[in-house]
Amino acid sequence: MTELKPDIEKRSEFDIEINGTVGKPFVDNPKMSSRNCDVFYGDKQAIFDVNLDIANNEIIAMIGPSGCGKSTYLRVLNRMNDTIPICKVTGEHTLDGEDIYGKKQDPVLLRARVGMVFQKPNPFPKSIYDNVAYGARLHGLASNRSELDDVVESSLIKAGLFKEVKDDLNKPGTGLSGGQQQRLCIARAIAVDPEVILMDEPTSALDPIATALIEELMDELKENYTIAIVTHSMQQAARVSQRTAYFHLGKLVEVNETDKVFTNPEHQLTENYITGRFG
Amino acid sequence: MELGQHISQRYNEELEDIRSKVLKMGGMVELQAENAVKSLLSHDRGLAKEVATTDSKINAMEMEIDEDCIRVIARRQPTARDLRLVIAVSKVITDLERIGDEAEKIALYSKKLAKKKTTIGMHADLTHLSELVLNILHDSLDAFARMDADQAVKILGSDKQVNVEFDNLSRLSITFMMEDPRQIKGTLRVNWCARSLERIAEHAQNICEYVIFLVKGKDVRHTSLEHIRSKYFPHDLDEETEENQAG
Amino acid sequence: MSKTTKKIEANLKKRYAKEKRFRAYGVVSLLISFAFLAVLLVTIFSKGLPAFQQTYIKLDIELNEKILGINKDSDEDALFSASYSKVVKNSLKEMFPGIKGRKQKRALKNLVSKSAAYDLRDKVLEKPTLLGTTQSYWFLAKDDVDVFMKGNIDRTLPESDRRIKDYQLAWIDKLMDEGRLEKRFNTVLFTEGDSREPEQAGMRGAIVGSLLTMLVTILLSFPIGVATAAYLEEFAPQNNRWVDLIEININNLAAVPSIVFGLLGLAVYINIFGVPRSTPLLGGLVLTLMTLPTIIIASRAAIKSVPPSIKEAAIGLGASRMQVLFQHTLPLAMPGILTGTIIGMAQALGETAPLLMIGMVAFVSDIPTGIFDPSTVMPVQIYLWSDSPERAFTERTSAAIMILLGFLVLMNVIAIVLRKKFEKKW
């Protein structure tokens, strides 16, 4: 009920306390959800008690200053942090109600269900075809060459790249432009038909046109996938997402509808961040 | 509400510039309205003429502020309170400009009324109404200047009183017209002036609504006062009930 | 111009002068190292090149059945054991009649290499019908003749200071007049094993020994080295004291003097495990110890340089750590790994000291046919020859160095080619 507080109280001193998350971090029937998530790198705690739901077929944007833990949290969701030996994740994390850190959960299977697109376009130094086919081959999704062809083609179509590369499928993926490479990475991710796609600053290395293409693509993918995107660009979060989560110093400060966050955020820290103020 | 503290000092200055321009425009409009009322009540033709000519300055000011707002939106992509400020300002100046128009109208009528001094019979009521309206205008501009939502919401209810006054004046003018049909023309003009005053109060209330939007982030247009108060200003209600109980 | 600009300008000249001086230093040091290299190569080549030629003597041999005591119907044993050196001696005697004194007789015999008798035997064994006829053959000349033919003995010196006496000179002159002396390409160097007689000594045993040793070394050190590097880089727990200890030790091993590995091989492989000494197997085992640190360090650097984004992409798609390693990390690191391996191999190829400790310095004239045969290796062969007193071994030593250098260059070329081939941009 912060919104009922008079404005004079909201504007406090420089170090503003974060007591839990304001806004609406929870939804009905979440696709993924985290409760009491703490992440440690050795002795250093990177994330403090994050509680968040991600709804079906939504795009949720995670924003916040550098080092605020948003990328770290994103990596919690498909256990990418497992690869860092000193990283310890606690709390409950579920995908469709299943515990993703449970003993029964296979991280390889989880990563097939929760795909990831990275900050820097990172196609394998292989052909475009092999890049897209990689995941399908890995998980044995296609039993013969023509099925694999179909997977590759449909993934490239979904990623909006097919028209541009259909004659060059055997050329190296690294020869494409930055924006095309990133769409190739998206095609590679959706070739395994994941349920959730995590995007870690997918357009930070791209020019505005390539960025716009990716954002348009995300809007289309929303129909079939749930997308969580970490971004440095608040404008991007405002453009593409339905909900926005603001992280600050490892804490989840505010989660709200994007419209609300960008017109009338509840928390002073959120406001300071998105309006470009000190704080 | 802080405008400053942006990392970009230039941005701070731009927003401050817009705000001070709006305050200046508000001052001009307030003066305009005061002068119009003064010319009406004191049958001052000279003053009326002056009011009629200064309106163009206000219009120019409106366009200038509008341009500033557009520039800030284009270059800074303001969000949250900055966005609300820019939007509120661009709406406030429209209302201010209308108030200026209404003041001009009053000045035009008072110029014509000055000769015959038709207003004498209704002087008391007109004075009362105009004082009320000018107060509302002043308070709402004040609320904007201080970005004080609490003050703004207090002003929101006061249009009822204006309506009562306006109705009284209307009834009075009907009596006058029935008594002496030769007075109809003059009385109607007085009535138009009263109507303009009522519009000014209405525009001033709009400004208050923008102030609430600016501070609270809630669009309170076309919402009942009770709803607004209970939803966004519960502490006001508490105070009032306390006061009532004390009384 | 502002004050600051003037200051900067004033300093600029000094800075440029400094830069020029620095560049000059670089060029000078480069030239010095090139000069040393040139001196080395010129010395070796000028000394070694003549060794690729060998002097042959043409003799008319009467295959006298009586002297040999055999005829064309004799069985192979008899043909084999007949005294062919006698006919060679007779042939020389016929050519230079009237030789007296034991000394002169021996000198006459020593015009031709001892291998002449064996050559003759092989020819007769091949074709027994030659018996009873007179044939002329080219035989290897004895090393002294060879040295003289190559101009390394000054005939103007007083006789007492010369290895070749006046009467020998007269014989050689006569042979030359008759066109019976000829220099040919030295095939012996590549086809024969080591020998006490310089004119019969070849590199083949050492080359084959080296190749077998390298084979053992690479078969052992490459998989072990790459696996160790991959484990340490990708799987080993970080900030673990044991892992740190292992890392430090590997780095230290790279700096251990190679002879220590030889001692280790002697103590462990021979004394404890009973690996046969002087064999390529043992050499390979010892050299594996020596090349492992090099391969591990190079492989780790190569694996480290694989962009983590590629690995992350694969993990993000659901690849297991092993799949990431074999499908992405190792293929991308392969150029670096191969370069490191080949550099390690080249190092091992040129290594002598540890092999001395494990008996590969023994005189082995047979050409090894497997990794269990006693053998020697090229650098040890060079060492042995450089130690030999005969004048003719000097040029052979240089020639052997040239051959070794040739192999090293070849390996480096292979390293470059492999790197170019595997290198991929990302």
Structure description:
The complex is a heterotrimer of chains A (279), B (247) and C (426). Chain A has 279 residues and is α/β, with parallel strands linked by helices. Chain A has eleven helices and eleven strands. In chain A, helix 4 crosses helix 5, helix 5 packs across helix 7 and helix 7 packs parallel to helix 8. The longest helix of chain B has 37 residues. Chain B is built from nine helices and no strands. With 247 residues, chain B is mainly α. In chain C, 65% of the residues lie in helices and 5% in strands. Chain C has a three-stranded antiparallel β-sheet with strand order 2-1-3. At the A-B interface, helix 9, helix 10 and helix 11 of A face helix 3 of B.
Question: What attributes does this structure have?
Answer:
heterotrimer, B: 247 residues, mainly alpha, Methane Monooxygenase Hydroxylase, Chain G, domain 1, C: 426 residues, MetI-like fold, 3 domains, three-stranded antiparallel sheet, 18 helices, 3 strands, 5% strand, elongated
Explain the layout of strands and helices.
The complex is a heterotrimer of chains A (279), B (247) and C (426).
Chain A: H1 7-10, E1 22-23, E2 30-41, E3 44-55, E4 59-63, H2 70-76, E5 87-95, E6 98-99, H3 107-113, E7 114-117, H4 128-138, H5 145-158, H6 162-165, H7 178-190, E8 196-200, H8 208-221, E9 226-230, H9 234-240, E10 243-248, E11 251-257, H10 258-263, H11 268-275
Parallel strand pairs in A: 1-11, 4-9, 4-10, 7-8, 8-9
Antiparallel strand pairs in A: 2-3, 2-5, 5-6, 10-11
Chain B: H1 9-42, H2 45-76, H3 80-116, H4 123-146, H5 149-156, H6 159-179, H7 184-216, H8 225-232, H9 234-246
Helix pairs in contact in B: 1-2, 1-3, 1-4, 2-3, 3-7, 4-5, 4-6, 4-7, 5-7, 6-7
Chain C: H1 3-48, E1 53-62, H2 65-68, H3 76-81, H4 84-95, H5 102-109, H6 115-126, E2 134-140, H7 143-149, H8 166-177, E3 181-185, H9 188-191, H10 204-235, H11 241-253, H12 258-270, H13 280-304, H14 308-316, H15 321-349, H16 353-357, H17 378-387, H18 392-422
Antiparallel strand pairs in C: 1-2, 1-3
